[in-house]
## 1
Amino acid sequence: MVRVFSTTPRIVMGPGSVKTIGAEVKALGIKRVMIVTDKGVIAAGLMKPIEESLKASKIGYAVFDRVEPDPRYEIVADCVLAARNSHAQMLIGLGGGSPMDITKTSAVMLTNKGPIGAYFGINLIPKRGLPTILIPTTAGTGSEVTPVAILSDEGEKLKKGIVSPYLYPALAILDAELTAALPPHVTAATGMDALIHAVEAYTSVNATAITDMYCIKAIELLYGNIRTAYAKGDNLDARAAMMEGAMLAGIAFANAGVTAVHAFAYPIGAEFHIPHGIANTLMLPHVIRFNVLGNLEKFARLAGPFGIRADGLDALAAVDKVIAAIDRLVDDLRVPRHLADFKVKEKDIPMLAEGAMKVTRLLANNPRTLTLEDAKRIYRAAL
Ligand SMILES: [Fe+2]
């Protein structure tokens, strides 16, 4: 089996590192950029240090702030037009997964004819796009180190993925200060998403020794710090560990892929507008219970990075302890446990199961073969 490992070529990290952006842009020989973000990021004052740094380095900039949560792919056309009008040579994505994914997609749409619908899928983009810099303001998606962009298709009520090496940014800047003011429920949802990336990449059929290494460190950092970041948001050490963990998890799943948890989360996210990290968390224990048989040894080895003493335990008992640790964590973070908490009903299950089965890009990575009947059973367990 041929395997490839790739990632973002340059990662600048540390509290305050966002102030290097002017120098970084200048070093690339670029004179004019457009920042792609959303109104929440601007209201939180996170753009200020970036603007100051760009001004100090005499870099001209425009701002596109119309990214919405779970962005519709139509936003890309608006962003491309704004970038053309501003003569930007580079796009800077600032925010959570949505601004970063709109940045990545718009950058390639500036050099490719489209239509965008032709690029949903794997490796369908013909040409390299404009260069990008990605600056996450949550510790979750890992989008700064993945060749993936996820956009909503409102018509089909589905989230769709574009996967292409041209979506990697020229560089990523990870500044934990940008996450210090995130409210606890966002810290919980985004942090759980990152933790799930690492768990899924570790148990994916495409895992390699390289991705395993990233997953284990990511789980240690994320599981070890998420409670502190949730309970004491201004603890910068915990925030920096979360950001690094989310990035490592991103590197892992960019190469090994995520599995059925994400496939099951997409239809409930699209249909019931449940935030991505919460949708994943709702499905996680139920998918693990199903998937365990596909790779018992690997699931049991999760005990280590979760800090669980498993010596003397058989593999199934170790997995039970991992699931118990996840359940306890979900309670501590006050994330709802049931789909019914979001008004999902028994009658919705066939439609959701059919939606999940369409996410073949992710189900191909799943450690256990899954049928439509299995999918219904898993959703029912999560109800
Ligand atoms: Fe995710």
Note: Residues 193, 197, 262, 276, 280 surround fe (ii) ion (CB under 6 Å).
## 2
Amino acid sequence: MNNNKKLRWGILGAARINQQLMPAIVAAENSELVAIASRRPGAAAETLAKYSPQQQGVTIYDGPEALLDDADIQAVYIPLSNHEHAEWTLRAIERGKHVLCEKPMALTVADIDAIETAAKKHNVVVMEGFMYRYHPQHARVRELLDSGLIGEVRSVRSCFSFMMQPARLYRLAEPIERGGGAMWDIGCYAIHAARLPLDDSPLAVTAMAKYTDTGADISSSGIIDYGDGKYAQFDFSFERARRAEYEIIGTKGGLKCHNVWAKQAETPVVSWWTESGRQCIETLQTSNHFLLEIEHFEDCVLNGKTPQLSLEDAKTNCRVIVAALQSAADGMRVQLD
Ligand SMILES: NC(=O)c1ccc[n+]([C@@H]2O[C@H](COP(=O)([O-])OP(=O)(O)OC[C@H]3O[C@@H](n4cnc5c(N)ncnc54)[C@H](OP(=O)(O)O)[C@@H]3O)[C@@H](O)[C@H]2O)c1
């Protein structure tokens, strides 16, 4: 049993993203990596050797089911493919595990409803892995907004893009219904970031998209209508130069977060201006948002804190994504209930 107050983690798959998350779990003071699973023989051990070679005593399981049977594991990190997230999140909850699930948590709002019900029943913490939100630059943005510096927020523009390497184009091979394409991969960030400064009651979405021959979306732009002339624009693509930014315009000025995916070595920059002529470019301290995400999760589990990103937030994001996909496919504005 766990006698040392550290959160005991299992990782449910040998995914590439473990390059970031595995060292974060190992480095977090109140976490301990105790197991990793993969359905592919040798892949879990290889992943461990590659991303956390110093870590001793990690149990290798030959699949997620076997890992969930380990009663000593308290929390699981789910880096499986997008269409598997909801199923394995539910299975983990039913075994009494706390769950950090990669984005997107699910492909339907109904699945997140089921996850929420199960999480309440089993009294576990469940969080969607939008790691960028734990970077202090967004708390700084919030602080600037709350100070009234740019007045009332009227519009947001978020842009996420990069040139997808040919070797990774397998992400486009899966149909959208199975979590393939740019929307479920990076569009979910663009929409999440665009929602950051506005209230959580979007009214409607209009979007357009370019599709590959396999039917996956590769580039998309859209507008979330919040009513009263408040709009959040999102734009993302696998075939444009790298950008990960958002800009917020208020009644008295504007501010911009220049590198939403700021890596540990990259200097985060937030700039702002006001109509009264003030302007500033703030360079903030570098941070590892993956580590901060893990530390926040362990704090929620071990100390009973409320997750910064709720399941309600996950549902709203999913609702907007599904509406945007429908809007792009049908060429129509989609009302949100
Ligand atoms: N937060 C972030 O910054 C970030 C960044 C990238 C991706 N993500 C998210 O993280 C999740 C995983 O993304 P990823 O790009 O790391 O996925 P990935 O490498 O394709 O792995 C996903 C799952 O597919 C299986 N798999 C891996 N390589 C395989 C192969 N060669 N053949 C067959 N199966 C294979 C693995 O399960 P088994 O080990 O059981 O076979 C693995 O858990 C996605 O939901 C994605 O949206 C998050």
Note: The radius of gyration is 20 Å.
